[in-house]
Design brief:
heterotrimer, A: mainly beta, SH3 type barrels, five-stranded antiparallel beta sheet, 2 helices, globular, B: mainly alpha, Cyclin A, domain 1, 5 helices
Chain lengths: 94, 94, 211
């Protein structure tokens, strides 16, 4: 499998609001995170949602974000985090 | 959805109604029979008008998604559904 | 006893307790009848599917957690390769989406959500509760996890990192909660009885033993 990013690497979730079925939550778009783990390669749900095969498979990562980087007014401890599974084509190196 | 405050969480458990179970059964038959992918169903739910998305119950949303996809894939026409609905409405009133 | 099916459309009347049918009742009936008429599936298929009971319940997840509490080698495998570990207990994980087990400790507390829909580790917990699927939970737990946990009666010190995990893709997340104090010498069965559905989602701790 060719995963572009490595565990521990800093990444930035892409901005944007393309039409269709997108599994990258709005609240994480444009936010900086760190690769927590690499799940492997999976079919692209954006294409599966329209009856296409979703191939070639794309690498899928668990990405970790500091809550204070996601929510400007986060009032919990600085160490609190939120994670989500994000496909490679939604990430850039930070 | 993530980051929005809709107020306190109702923690009560509700048993599924017979209606819920029938919708769930149709859903499972369509998925197991490979008529729909779960990604297509999710996309159909996301395409519902916002007021429906916010007010429909869990199984009402799935039924609305099933309706969208069976028409989209040509299994049934909107006309056939409308005609049957009219017949059932008449029978229920009479 | 012979039972003659005359396939009358009123066989599966949607009316519950004498109430007038709603538009949703009628829509379900219309779609169901039409799909059967078009041979997309048969009435028998539907009856069989409706009668199928969910064989999986939180008791299954509880057994896995209790085993991890008493058996360190199993716990290590559960965290590294959950599919193999769980199949060794006799569960058929099948071609289901991939399971990931998240360990909660003194310093790290995971809580799981699906903000986009209702993805949930059904393979070990059965169907999700209504609150998990609600917009109230999905909206707030990512931005105010401590407030949400508080609503569930769970308080965590500021020294504990809360990590909210949003199941946005094919992975399904199960929390492995910490073994409660005062449970030394309990059998696996007794331990499993302390493991609630909610503590495997991460909104509560396991029950503590009642002396």
């Amino acid at each position: 499998m060719n995963a572009t990013f490595k565990v521990g690497q800093r990444v930035l979730v892409k901005e944007g609001d393309p039409p269709g079925h997108i599994r990258t939550p709005f609240f994480l778009r444009g936010k900086p995170g760190v690769i927590e783990s690499i799940h492997g390669e999976f079919r692209n749900p954006e294409e599966l949602a329209y009856g296409k095969e979703g191939l070639p498979k794309k690498p899928l990562y668990l990405v970790r974000f500091l809550q204070k980087d996601v929510w400007p007014d986060y009032r919990g401890p600085a160490a609190d985090t939120v994670c989500a599974d994000i496909y490679e084509h939604w990430l850039d190196a930070d | 959805m993530g980051g929005k405050d809709f107020g306190p969480i109702d923690q009560r458990d509700h048993d599924r109604t017979d209606w819920d179970n029938r919708v769930d059964a149709v859903l499972k038959l369509m998925l197991d029979g490979r008529r729909f992918r779960v990604d297509e169903l999710r996309r159909a739910i996301e395409s519902l008008p916002e007021k429906d998305y916010m007010s429909f119950s869990y199984y009402q949303k799935w039924l609305a998604a099933i309706r969208i996809l069976i028409v989209e894939k040509g299994m049934l026409s909107e006309d056939e559904i409308a005609t049957r609905l009219a017949q059932l409405r008449e029978r229920a009133a009479g | 006893m012979a039972h003659h099916h005359d396939h009358d459309h009123d066989d599966h009347a949607p009316i519950e307790e004498g109430k007038a049918p709603t538009e949703f009742d009628l829509l379900e009936q219309a779609i169901r009848e039409l799909l059967i008429e078009k041979n997309i599936f048969s009435a028998d298929d539907l009856r069989r599917q409706v009668d199928k009971t969910d064989s999986v319940s939180p008791a299954d997840g509880a057994k896995v957690v209790a085993r991890a509490w008493v058996d360190p080698a199993f716990k290590a495998q559960l965290l590294a390769d959950p599919k193999t570990a769980i199949e060794a207990l006799g569960y058929d994980v099948g071609p289901a989406p991939n399971l990931v087990v998240l360990e909660n400790t003194d310093t790290l507390h995971h809580v799981v959500v699906c903000t986009l829909c209702s993805c949930y580790p059904r393979v070990l917990l059965g169907p999700p509760p209504d609150w998990y699927k609600s917009k109230e939970y999905r909206g707030r737990v990512v931005i105010d996890p401590r407030g949400v946990l508080d609503e569930f009666g769970t308080q965590l010190d500021d020294s504990v990192e809360i990590k909210v995990v949003d199941s946005t893709a094919d992975m399904r997340y199960l929390v492995l909660p910490p073994r409660p104090a005062g449970t030394e010498g309990m059998t696996e069965e007794q331990l499993a009885a302390l493991v609630t559905r909610d503590c495997m989602v991460g909104v509560t701790f396991p029950d503590t033993p009642v002396n």
